[in-house]
């Protein structure tokens, strides 16, 4: 079945440093979504990418979808303590199933 | 106004008991889901319903039985609870295949002792 791998599993950064998490799918995706889960909270939808090679920005967050639509990345510039949480990618198929990656747990040291 | 609400928020119960978790969404979405999140944060889909019809039924023990009385509600009943069922269970909803993302409830932390 479809697998979505996400790395790294953990990332510890100093406040102000950049952070990137990567997502790879075993199959071609129709779309990729990104979610953020704060400690003790629930996943919150951030964005969806659909087109091959698409790049979208939300303030300090940059999301990319690979040309082959099998990989994606989330880059945060100049992390802040409010960025703490687990970031999930989720790969969508044409028949509607969304498979989540294992998540990257980000801690930011002030 | 809570978009996706789950009850209870916490559930502590003994092995062998039967329990239910309820979920309601007021977003007008037509698709609802149950996800299980283990201690390593891994989110695994269990079930999905579209307009009260079961469309995704992953490999889940048949002790777990979802029920959708209408498209705004999706409940989860668990029979003969086991220690390994301890996890956080999230309900979520979306419109169609979720082009605008899934909206998750705040979760139910189930602890089986």
Summarize the structure.
The complex is a heterodimer of chains A (110) and B (113). With 110 residues, chain A is an all-beta fold.
Query: Per DSSP, what share of the residues of chain B sits in E-state strands of 2 or more residues?
Result: over 45%
Mean pLDDT of chain B: 93
Largest sheet of chain B: 7 strands, mixed
Number of helices of chain B: 0
Description:
The complex is a heterodimer of chains A (110) and B (113). Chain A has 110 residues and is an all-beta fold. Chain A is 0% helix and 56% strand. Chain A is built from no helices and 11 strands. Chain A has strands at 4-7, 10-14, 19-25, 31-37, 43-49, 55-58, 61-65, 71-76, 85-92, 98-100, 104-109. In chain A, strand 9 (85-92) and strand 10 form a beta hairpin. Chain B has 113 residues and is mainly β. Helix content of chain B is 0%, strand content 56%. In chain B, 34% of the residues are buried. Classes of the chains: A mainly beta (110), B mainly beta (113). The interface between A and B is medium-sized, with 22 and 24 residues.
Helices and strands in order, then pairings?
The complex is a heterodimer of chains A (about 110) and B (about 110).
Chain A: E1 4-7, E2 10-14, E3 19-25, E4 31-37, E5 43-49, E6 55-58, E7 61-65, E8 71-76, E9 85-92, E10 98-100, E11 104-109
Parallel strand pairs in A: 2-11
Antiparallel strand pairs in A: 1-3, 3-8, 4-5, 4-9, 6-7, 7-8, 9-10, 9-11
Chain B: E1 4-7, E2 10-13, E3 19-25, E4 31-37, E5 43-50, E6 53-57, E7 64-70, E8 73-78, E9 87-94, E10 103-104, E11 108-112
């Amino acid at each position: 079945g479809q697998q979505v791998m996400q790395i790294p599993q953990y990332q510890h950064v100093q406040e102000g440093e950049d952070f990137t998490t990567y997502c790879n799918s075993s199959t071609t995706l129709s779309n990729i979504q990104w979610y953020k889960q704060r400690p003790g909270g629930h996943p919150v939808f951030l964005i969806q990418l659909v087109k091959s090679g698409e790049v979208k920005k939300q303030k300090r967050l940059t999301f990319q979808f690979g040309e082959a639509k099998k990989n994606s990345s989330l880059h945060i510039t100049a992390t802040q303590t409010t960025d703490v949480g687990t970031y999930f990618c989720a790969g969508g198929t044409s028949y509607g199933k969304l498979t989540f990656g294992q998540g990257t747990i980000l801690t930011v040291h002030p | 106004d809570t978009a996706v609400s789950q009850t209870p928020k916490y559930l502590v119960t003994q092995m062998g008991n039967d329990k239910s978790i309820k979920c309601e969404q007021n977003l007008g979405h037509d698709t609802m889901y149950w996800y299980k999140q283990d201690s390593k944060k891994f989110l695994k889909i269990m079930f999905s319903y579209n307009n009260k019809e079961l469309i995704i039924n992953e490999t889940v023990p048949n002790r777990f039985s979802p029920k959708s009385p209408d498209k705004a509600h999706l409940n989860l009943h668990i029979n003969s609870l086991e220690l390994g069922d301890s996890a956080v269970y999230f309900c979520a909803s979306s419109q169609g295949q979720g082009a605008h993302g899934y909206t998750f409830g705040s979760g139910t932390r189930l602890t089986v002792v």
